[in-house]
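Section 3.1: Structural characterization of target chains.
Under the original work plan, the team committed to producing a structural model for every single-chain target entering the pipeline before any wet-lab resources were allocated. The record below documents one such target. The sequence was received from the expression subgroup and is listed exactly as submitted; it comprises 381 residues.
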Amino acid sequence: MSDKFNQRLPWLKRYPLLGPVFGLSFVLILFQCMVHFHRGMDFLTPDTVGLILTQTVVVATGTLGMTMIIVSGGIDLSAGSMVALTGVVAGVILRSGHSSWLAVLAAILVGAFAGLINGGIIARFNMMPFIVTLGSMGAGRGLAKWVADNQSVNYNFGITDGVNGLMNNPSILHAASSPQWWTSLGPNDQPNPMPTMTPDWLYNICAHFMPVAPGHPGELYMPLWMPPMGVLILLVLTVAMSIVLNRSVFGRHIFALGSNEDTARLCGLRTKTLKVVVYMLAGMFIGLAGVFDLARLRQGDPTVAIGLELDIIAAVVIGGASLNGGVGSIWGAIIGALTMTSLRSGTVQMGWPSYIQEIIIGVVIVLAVGVDKIRSRGLKG
């Protein structure tokens, strides 16, 4: 088996995303056939694709940081708890009347501080990342409940106001001749306009993809498949992190650390400092994922994201990363996140109960780890 794997290894090295793309394609085609034959519906509709993209944002943002951690040879089991904690912190700030910018900044800083503590303990005391982050998983969940006073944190924002606009598109796009560009319905069905006008050229482009409001030719309805701002932010961050991990000296150091820490230390790398920086940067992405989760739910909930760390880790491994460290891909992790979200969306459309979803996700995680082991044996020859 190892010889056959080695014969195919040059192709895998040249096209490392083939495996994740095949896995995603298999899931999409499988559920398209199942939903079509069993429910008489199409799974791959524009609205469903838009919904999958939106739901993927939280998991995919977490994979940006988790990929760095796993490539460096570590792991983080506290991601789900930290998403809940950072979301609650941002919600408390919004409830206090502060701006969305301050809430986003606070969530990212809290995530960075949590990563700094995890990385500092792991590096300073040479402890196993599994044990350290397992402890911080419980501590983070407890802190989230304490900050939220063990209840949901609600704030008085409309569906597209402030931070909520990151994950919810406005409902109507107005022409440039209109006095307002974006409108949406807020509390008590009152409009929440943003006094900005779209240029004619942008409106004309959108008119090709968005339906015209009946009786109002200057207004376009925002279809469900139009991705919200969070999807666009994720795309920009993915491109940036792919460049950082694959084209920068810092990225090369992360791969070297995960491949062989002792060798990296002998080559002059400050491995302890590098671990702390990796966990801190990953914490910033977890904090941003908490903001996206807050915007999606429109409230801070200390009980959300239970088991989210498993989805994130599975997505990274499905994307081609090795739990042994030294191997990983940002784009592969994003494809893995899409695969996980598509699995959940497909099971919902099939009408399967939640426990079936959890069983399937558990099987996928085991299979992903098994594929990682086979891949590692092939690399060793």
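The chain has a mean pLDDT of 84.
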